[in-house]
Amino acid sequence: MPNAALYRYDPTLNIAIEEKNPVKICQYSACPRRDTGYEGKKMKVCARCKHVRYCSKECQKADWTGHKRRGCRDFQYWNDYTGWMEQYRTIFTWAATEALRIHTTDDILHNILQIFATYSDRIPAPVGPIPSPFYILSSQVIPLDADPLTAMIATPKEREESRAIRANGGAGRAILSFQFIEDPLNLAKSTSFMRPFKIDFEDPLIPGYRHFDGWRSVLAGVVNGTISVLDIDRSIGYQSSNANVEQLHEDAKAEEEELALLARSVKDVCMSG
């Protein structure tokens, strides 16, 4: 059986994505070898989850209590990309609504929502438990013709069907592009797997709708487990109060700080490896 840390599987597509150069970092934060690195050292994978590595049995034993508390789970033979996107369809639909400003512009006909994510086992332990197999790093809105890959997703047929939805009173078809990154700090050598996701907005546009500018941080916060979906239900809607929306802005700001902290943590781990 291939090592889960070396291969990513999608049961829907029946394909495997290989990670050619797995990062050698001992999971134990107090590992005495961190200052000298692990070049040439054979790493041992946790037999239960197969997602973290240790340089010795001593380090694995010392880290077991913390690793178990952080969510060591039985080994899963796949990463269900499609299932994950469907699981979070509600928040992705909300994010597309806000990012593409579907009720006040025709951006949905000209732009795409691009989302960068990495695998949860790539996130440093100090960040804490992560509720999903993927961790959102960032997101942005780019033109449909921004690059050949984007243009390939937004085919002439897709664009025509999007315009047809709008002609019938809806907003159009939102196209999301998910980029799954193996090593978020080394994109040049990282295995990146792309999956498109489409959402049809066929309901009538809402006059006077107020779009939410902090959608990026809220999207990341919900998927990464730092913002509750209930907070969005309470705070954003057609009858939202200013106080509730202000609270969601506070949550979004906190998530931005969390992502910045993550970036520093990943950098520190890599520099110490």
General description of the model:
The chain is of the alpha+beta class and 273 residues long. The protein has helices at 57-69, 81-87, 89-99, 148-153, 156-167, 215-224, 229-235, 242-272; strands at 7-10, 15-18, 44-45, 53-54, 111-119, 134-143, 172-181, 192-201. The strands form three sheets. The chain has a four-stranded mixed sheet. Strands 1-2 form a two-stranded antiparallel sheet. The longest helix is centred in the last third of the chain and has 31 residues, at 242-272. Residues 238-265 form a coiled coil. GO terms for molecular function: zinc ion binding. This is MYND-type domain-containing protein. Keywords: Coiled coil, Metal-binding, Zinc, Zinc-finger.
What's the gist of this structure?
The protein has two domains: 7-69, no CATH class; 81-272, no CATH class. It has eight helices and eight strands, in the order ββββαααββααββααα.
Side by side, the strands of the main sheet go: 6-5-7-8
Mean pLDDT: 77
Order of helices and strands: EEEEHHHEEHHEEHHH
Main sheet attributes: strand count, strand direction, barrel closure = 4 strands, mixed
Main structural class: alpha+beta
Measured between the Cα atoms of the first and last residue, the distance is 28 Å
Number of domains: 2
Number of helices: 8
Based on CA atoms alone, the radius of gyration comes out at 21 Å
Shape: elongated
> How much helical structure, as a percent, in the residues?
25-40%
Low-confidence stretches: 1-6, 237-245, 265-273
GO molecular function, one term: zinc ion binding
Keywords: Coiled coil, Metal-binding, Zinc, Zinc-finger
InterPro entries: Znf_MYND
Protein name: MYND-type domain-containing protein
